[in-house]
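During the reporting period the student researcher (J.K.) took over the structure-prediction task from the postdoctoral fellow and processed the backlog of single-chain submissions. One of the processed entries is reproduced below for the supervisory committee.
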Amino acid sequence: MTFLIDIINLKPEKMKIVTTALLLMIALNSCQFSKSVKKDLASGLLTTGDGLSCDDVYIAVNDEKVNRNTFIYGEEFVIKFNDIEGFTKENDYLFPGMKLVVTSIAGDTVLQSKDLYSEYPNGMKLSPLLLTSILSVASPMKSKGEYSLNILIWDKKGDGHFTAKLDFKVEPNENIVTSSLNVKCDEIYLYSEERAKVIPGNKIRFNENTYFIFEGLSGFTEINGMVFPGLSLKATDNDGNVILDYPDLFSDYDDKGLAVTDFNSRVTSNFIIPASQFKNPLHCELIIKDKKSDAMINVKADLILE
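J.K. obtained the following structure tokens:
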């Protein structure tokens, strides 16, 4: 928009008013320039800036940029803020702060962090400045759940701040196939002890202590606060060679049983495959059955060893 002003015909006091108005307009435009709102249509990632700006914000999984908002239970994703600008400098050092909060679709707080950059009290000297927020999609989150990730970045030496919001869904590991009779289970997943993380896919490692983990098992017959389960695990390679064969890992509990509270909380079965001649994949079948009824749950998974 262009304004034409007849300066010649204006009196001095009117010129002063016009000049003040123009200066005010310039000041307002400057304030608006420091604010931004941007939404990625593919993932739904929404960012807003006030005093801080960042044009390159994206989601990454395994160091690869992705445009999605659905993740496998146990998957880890990173939101990267590349070349974020607007921080107050002190001797070329910047002082960013970052917090994140995860809420359920009902609005309940599921996870929250303290300042992720509190370990830099003397500031950071990076150019361009890259800030990252990492989230592992596992407990206390659940598969088939919907959540919101909210990130706040602020300038510890100024007033600028920047926010990001991502609504996302959590899906169970499709490589784990289950069938059951009169049994329910909240969560079934693979876990690596050495990596201390959930395995979201089907790739495990030789000499790695790998767990099948069941959480929230219910439907087993209770007798005086005890249940009497059986647990079998069998695995063969693709040539049919038997690699694992455990008919009943719970045979020691036939007489006394297991406390129902412990059983309902978590059941695990772990194994280690030593490095050897092996034909991928590893065909695993795990069965947990009730020795006092016909209730049972069957789990099958084809795993790749590498």
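The committee noted the following: Residues 12-33 form the longest helix (22 residues).
J.K. will present the remaining backlog at the next meeting.
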